[in-house]
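Write out this protein's structure.
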Amino acid sequence: MPSEASREYQRNWGVGDTNAFAAWRTGATGRGITVGVVDSGIRMNHQDLGANISPLSTDIVAGRNQREDQDGHGTRVSSVIAAPFNDYGTVGVAFNSTILSIRADVSDCTKPEDKICFKSSDLARALDYAVQNGARVINLSLGGESPLGAQFEAALLRAVNAGVVFAIAAGNEEGANPEWPGRYASDSRFLGAIIVTGAHDKAQRIADFSNRAGVSQNVFLSAPGVDVIVDCEGDSCWRVNGTSFASPAVAGALALLLEAFPNLTGRQAVDILLRTGREAGDPGTDVVYGRGLLDIGRAFQPVGATSAPMANGA
């Protein structure tokens, strides 16, 4: 188990902010839980992450077959979830979980300022692939201004009906509401299976760039998303900002719960995280922080007789 004095732990303020140590003390590390990361791919032989990357990771874009991350975004997102405790780099929230990386980015974007973007048809195939290959949790650190259409929604519904749960970034437009697909969290078809995630800083204030909870306040949490240290190789790491790096903290928290309490359904794990969010902003659920700040320590307090925690050290 990581030490609170270790360099890895100290380097990543987010794991302390979310009280991940409370889960780790019970023996929960994400082991045996596959987290699908639909993004720009991953560096398969990454010095820090490599051991936690599934060999089933793929490129879903037809005819390309290049699962290696050309942009870096997917690797950095995955680092928040599953950077291992190995006396190197930093440590992820669910540091023994398995990353199923599904590359879905394309470069022919409609906005010239975007380096990468995603087609809804590719995202739909990515969700199906994740479900077919054992993902219990899927992270989507991506978004746009509009709903993604019938093909994506059908795939999202298939995943939800299969018991898969989602962490989705709220977006970085300083908006009053999350962008899509995060906004699907409050759609009745998917309600209870998605947490949309905003970003806060070390002072636990919502980041200036982060979209707020707004219409999705009942299914919204905030997680660390400012000055997050990720993707360490050699003597260098990346310091990143964005809801893209807050959402995977929630994905990691879901992985911890699903490992520690094997009888929990995915929806029950989502409900626990939402109910145990740490108060922020106006009292109760509010339009900025939604249900509050992600608090894994509170989530690992007793959850009732339906689930028995794993033995310490298992």
